[in-house]
Amino acid sequence: MFTLHGMKKLDRLILKSFVGPLALTFAIAVFVLLMQFVWKYVDDLVGKGLEFKVIAELLLYASATFVPMALPIATLFASIMTMGNFGEKYELVAIKAGGISLRRVMMPMVLVVLLLTGVAFYFANNVMPVAMLKYRTALYDITRKKPAFNIRPNEYYTDINGYVIRIDQKDSDGRSMRDITIFDHTHGATTNNIIVANSGIMQVSPDQHYLVFTLYDGCNYSEDIGGKDYVTRPMTRVEFEEQVLTFDISDFAFDKSEAGFLKGGYQMMNISQLDTAVRKLKHTRQERFDDNAQVTVERMKCYMQFLAADTVEPVYKLYMLQSRQSTWCAGAHPPMRACRNPKPSCSGQLAANHLRQARSIADAVRNDARVLKEVVKADDEYINRHYIEWQRKYTLSVACLLLFLIGAPFGSIVRKGGLGMPLVASVAFFVFYYVVGMIAEKAVRESAMGPIGMWMSTFVLLPLGIFFTYKATTDSALFDLATWKRRLHIGRKNQNQ
Asked: How many degrees, rounded to 5, is the angle at CA 69 between CA 21 and CA 61?
């Protein structure tokens, strides 16, 4: 039997064996997700002359958004690897021989995972919204920034609005140029303006908002092509020894938006903010539905009365009502006296007009109902996105505990450590968990399931974790090929007998 001192040493050994792979796998998972992000937005990051500080800030905020996903897979891999190493080196057999159960062996890791679950929830509810806001703001600022200003020789440069610039030579100082041609399109399509110079100097203003060209020994060509007479079009040629041109390049500068510029998205809210937003959205949706329903009822009353009308008066009243349809949609309601029938009957032509106008009202009611259905569907989907984000703060946190419940018993059963088998198994389990979660999320978003559907991955994998735990505590050879071969051999022998 192990003594108390021996138990403490065993706990330290287990923690040391578990925390190391956990931290390493977490770092690798965040790095892989970050590289995927960089690959997706590489075109927006390269060639814009961004400072290292700006790119580092974006990558830091992006990494923070990957933490809730990286923690569960790190927990799964570390638990499989730790218990697999113990089983492969027969350390787990020695521990059990000393009278220590598997549950007691897993207890130090359980405490760490419970701590990670709490940290993951706090991070998802308090840190994640702020990081997502800063990440989206930084990404918006970077993607709307134009590429860095760089005019290359023998290329047509078109990034300055209204101008096309071409130079044949550019000195090593980056400022002096030779054989310059500038096409000026700022005067519209009716005028051709071309500036040609033998040499020039290019400078950027101190505030980085203006580009100054000082041109030497050139000509300005201007031709009016707006007239119909192709023979007598006026053309002007002006020679110069020195000319200064100024271009506005303020769009090339990197400007940081306000911190709360994109604030208000459901991914940038904590649980209490999501609750408040859902209540407001439901109230707005109900008001819109009630207003449209009341307008529809009023129109149907007019429709039914108009079908029974056979006088001239309702025709005039109907046209008055139709002219007010825009105000109906805004919430105003037409007076019911317009549908009354105070005069005696009229000709059959007027009756046909009554029927035609009644059909027009019916078509308007049907179209309003179709539009209202689409609007309500869009409102429901947006509300469901808030529910999804609310539930995700819990599901990703509980995922750490759930995947540990699968990984630790699985590792003790297969008794394979190292990187190969634990990596393959952890990826397979996590992909299955992720795919089921994506299917459930889509169903919740489309109102095919309630918000509880976000827990579908947990409901599916929890029985598997309980099954693995049971098999591990009973020393089952579930994944032992030799045991299965022996059982199959015995089964075939019994059949032959």
From this structure: 100
Q: How far is CA 304 from CA 297, 359, 361, 434, 494, in A?
A: 11, 11, 10, 55, 83
Distances in Å between the Cα of 110 and the Cα atoms of 215, 291, 362, 426, 439 are 74, 55, 65, 18, 29
Token pair, residue 421, equals 């088998």
The per-residue DSSP string of 169-188 comes to EE-TTSSEEEEEEEEE-TT-
Task: List, edge to edge, every strand of the sheet that includes 176-184.
Answer: 163-170, 176-184, 191-204, 210-224, 235-248
Residue 399 near residue 67 (C-beta atoms within 8 A): no
> Helix (H, G, I), strand (E, B), or coil: what is residue 109?
helix
Give the start-to-end residue ranges of the domains of the chain: 4-145+393-496, 163-252, 269-387
Which tens digits make up the pLDDT trace of 228-264? 555 556 778 888 888 888 887 766 655 565 555 567 7
Nearest to 40 by CA among 67, 58, 64: 58
Amino acid at position 253, single letter: A
**Structure pTM?**
0.65
Q: What are the residues facing 246 on neighbouring strands?
A: 212
Q: What distance in Å separates the CA atoms of residue 166 and residue 175, rounded to the nearest whole number?
A: 14
Q: pLDDT of 271-287, one tens digit each?
A: 988 899 889 888 888 88
